[in-house]
Amino acid sequence: MIPFNKAFVTNRELGYIAEAYGNAHLSGDGAFTKQCHGWLEAQTGVSKALLTHSCTAALEMAAMLAGIGPGDEVIMPSYTFVSTANAFVLRGAVPVFVDIRPDTCNLDETLVEAAITPRTRAIVPVHYAGVACEMNALQDIARRHNLLLIEDAAQGVMARYHGRVLGGIGDFGTYSFHETKNVTCGEGGALLVNAPAHAQRAEIIREKGTNRSQFFRGQVDKYTWVDVGSSYLPGELVAAFLWAQLQEAASITDARLAIWARYHASLAPLEAAGLLRRPTIPAGCEHNAHMYYVVLAPQFDRQQVLTSLRAAGINAVFHYVPLHSAPAGRQFGRVHGAMDVTDAVSERLIRLPLWVGLTEAQQHEVVTQLGAALA
Description:
The chain has helices at about 15-20, 30-45, 55-65, 80-90, 110, 135-145, 200-205, 210-215, 235-245, 250-265, 270, 300-310, 325-330, 340-350, 360-375; strands at about 50, 75, 95-100, 120-125, 150, 160, 165, 170-175, 190-195, 275, 285, 290-295, 335, 350. By secondary structure, it is α/β, with parallel strands linked by helices. The chain folds into two domains: about 15-245, 3-Layer(aba) Sandwich (Aspartate Aminotransferase, domain 2); about 250-375, Aspartate Aminotransferase, domain 1, CATH 3.90.1150.10. The chain has an eight-stranded mixed β-sheet, sandwiched between helices. Strand 6 and strand 7 form a beta hairpin.
């Protein structure tokens, strides 16, 4: 079986974990966490980066920092993971689902402004497959309507939009370091804070609502409960693993891009024959090869294609069930406009195996078997 995903290990992880163990500091915010914070801040240019135990946690923190509350509305795509919506539903807000673009599967920026109401507080673009949303247009809309822009860049580590790093463009950004992501620590994430005014409160929310970080910097003589918050920081062993990955983030990205490019070239004939559509990378977007997907032509039954691939030893998979059609999406959110593209993509998209170490021979087999399934 050619697996869909296989987490890459740099061979430094165990050494760093042993070092963290030897330092006898395991609870988080130790030396490895600080190194990860420094790397993220240097990479993205944000004023504050904070490791979290998941991207879900980072999104929840962003919702709190944004002051999202009951009755507020937050515009987002429906074609995303549940955490994008859950973070705001937990604050009492209503996700407003808008359709996606057919070329990138990203939030359709031309539909966002019409979805704005007096209750709208934020726009949450999701950079699908590590390909940037049209952030210039979204920033302009957010500015004109006095809205916050919160990037769900779970899939966007090391990707850029017109030279700017994804996650570092909006007011807040979030990363995922889940096992399925390019850079991983098994489970983990990060919150990126652009405005310095939010940095101190972000630390407080992350530390259970206390000013513990200020205490350790000697800014207060004792720490206490000062705000709402929760336990959002990861342990130091997780940070040690992540530090090894961040040190190799550029080489990991290059390796994945080479695999992505081979898929793209090999699948061109199937696209030319009208059997599928390959991903589109708009001008100005530097993607990170987070995934390679194809969108099948309407005449094919996706499940039959997936079954054929699995029978041939290839673990290809579908992706999201749109949130607007999920039971909780219907209960907590609302739809603005038609969702034709979202519905069509969700029924026809297939993600192909992509991981560092996938060989050319394995890729050739994937492409051959996909072509056979569509013959």
